[in-house]
Amino acid sequence: MTGLTSAEAARRLHDDGANTLPKTKGRHPLLLLLEQLIHFFALMLWAATALAYIAGMPVLSVAIAIVVVLNGVFAFAQEYRADRAAQRLRDLMPARATVRRDGAPQVVDASELVVGDELLLEAGDRVCADGEVLTAAGFAVDESMLTGESVPVHPVAGELVHAGTHVAEGEAAVLVNATGPHTKLAGIAALTQEAKPPPSPLALQLHKVVMVVALTALAVGVLFFGVALLLGLPATQGFLFAVGVTVALVPEGLLPTVTLSLARAAQNMASQHALVRRLDAVETLGATTFICTDKTGTLTRNEMSVVKVWTPAGEVAVHGDGYDPVGTVDGPPAAVDQVRALAVSAKLCSPKAHVRRSEDRWQPVGDPMEVALHVLAARLDVDGPSADSIRYPFDPRRRRSSVVDADGVHVTGAPDSILPLCAARSGAAEAIAALAKDGLRVLAVARRPARAGDESGWQHAERDLELLGLVGLHDPPRHDVAGAIASCRTAGIKLAMITGDHPVTARAIAEQVGLLGPDQLVLQGDQLPADRDELGRLLDHDGVVIARVTPEDKLRIAVALQHRGHVVAMTGDGVNDGPALRAADIGIAMGASGTDVAREAADLVLLDDHFGTIVAAIELGRATFANIRRFLTYHLTDNVAELTPFVIWALSGGSIPLAISVLQVLALDIGTDLLPALALGAERPNEHTMRGKLRTGSLIDKTVVRRAFGVLGPAEAVMSMAAFLIVLHLGGWRFGQTPDTALLAVASGTAFTAIVLGQLANAYACRSVSRPVTKTGVRGNRLLGYAVAFELAVLGIFLFLPPLPDLLGGHAPSPLGWLLALAAIPAVLLADAASKAVGRRLIGR
Ligand code: ADP
Ligand code: MG
Question: What is the pTM of this model?
């Protein structure tokens, strides 16, 4: 089979269309907007609107209606943007397929598959079109996606495979007979279109926070209504207070702000080659305390080249540039002859690998290690015969692959999996040790020069072997891995290297990149204790190397560490890594080299397979978590300042008039507060983000509560109440009197201004939980600058643009009033700086 020609494939693609499922029609934006107007809080506020109208307060009624609509539009805009961001992330997810075209295997975008293509599948691939099996070797397909049946099926030549299923084992060539909308999957997808993903843990936690606050608000509101009635106020007035208190406290804008800030973080991560598959993974990433990383491709470049070959007849050095098929070998002639024989077998075991020249370089196609073997054969000028053969592809448990052809059996794989199958192996152990010590990956190649009759099943084929030799492969470490590892250490994140490779090779690489910890712990998968707690204790060190690990070991390691209280990030790329990736808090798959199965089980996909990208994503996750708490603190502080006038009014039995009106509370919530909160959500990671462990746990913890309710909120409240009372007093009002309307309006305007200005200071104070504004400075977040400018402009409008001052009940302050209101800025900053100084002393920094 030679497959289609590229020209024919292009023509069919043009005629039949792309191999993609028809886009599920999202819900209409207007419908989404409507949803924002009729959720629980909105309904609560609509009820208030109606009641206010019935109670004869049309202005309040309209004002609340405006709040609901503005809030809804705002929430809609944020969620819409977040949705679009998530959609873009999905589009970035790599989807590739290997096809035979123009007589050679090629990797193409899965969307470019056409009917008539010869699709080459191997373990871990997602089948991306329907087709008929042409040839199959140890081929098993997991159809659970389509049928719910969890036992893999074994389609043979002539049988069908369907898009959406996964290759569990083996390989096959498939003739594509339906693509895109014509596949069986498309029919099913149309049925399941409506399914919405379940809410994330973060969303649930936030929802709880919002619910508790809202219900508290409602209860307080009702309480105030009672107090007002007791004080002998008319019911309408009491109602007004109740609504004011409730509206002041309900954090209706919080959820969309959080969603948007997660979406923004996800986008930032994507631009750094880290693709999160669920938005809340952003937050979990930030909380990571233990990274289990593999070696090949993540810490190293996965650019393999054979540099040394050991044979029983002597050692040969191989020279050449990258994957260039032209190179030289040097060693004793007898050894070179033996290496030729070895290269024949090794090449047979890697039939799919080859090199292609593009952009003036030799590029590998297929598994880099197999390509390196292919290049070795080319450099020795050997041409592997490719007669009819049975293949038993590599699997990470057996750790070898084999081919049976007319001449016998050829096996390539990890030395410890092959040597036991060989009769003579003197000198091999020493040779392995020497190669591995240099950080070389060692492969053994063996052969049985005759067929034995029954070669069905690898158990029968892979026996009675003759060792041809050992291949030492060089795979250089990635250049900036050492820096990323160091930054994990300052962040208090522990690291372990988990690899299927030889312990000595693993150790050498761990040393080269600076991963190996002080206790130099190098373990092997088959020596790990069976007991979960014992395993957890053993591994709970920084810089552990675990070699010869199977996918099952990975799963046990993830679970054991989680039981030690760790938030575990685990990388994986193989077909059997799915369970470990799912079990880990953050499963990380490789976008460039990993299998589709691993990618679909992962929470994070590294588009560049780079360890440094994991660390960059963790940093962004941490920054986002901090941002969410920043604007939570900002919001809650405002609530304290808004609620205080109502409490004082109630506690004084009405002897102290209300400092701010309900409408002013609404103006604060919806007018001046929105943008700074958003801007705080866009705060960038700084040099403190990766310093020390992250205090994780719930969003609202002691620090948030202490700062909002103990420091910032009271400072702001005191300043605005003081400004209010001083203006009243200077205007002639005395305790217990009812102030004159004009005086009250100016005093209210002053209190209102004090809160807005206090919030301005608060926004800057919230940029850090430990450093005062004198340290953080006011630069570094341009959005916050704009937000504050906007906040001041809106303040001006509320104070000066008729009829707003009359409607809100707050007139522009007098010059002295301005001074009093301005004093809120230094007051908030001072309170903040003082509490941070005390905090620093307490934790001794
Ligand atoms: P790593 O953690 O370094 O990616 P793997 O689990 O992929 O290790 O591989 C484990 C061992 O199996 C390797 O050291 C190598 O000896 C052998 N091996 C890996 N890939 C192949 C292959 N395609 N064919 C034969 N043997 C292989
Ligand atoms: Mg590997």
Answer: 0.85
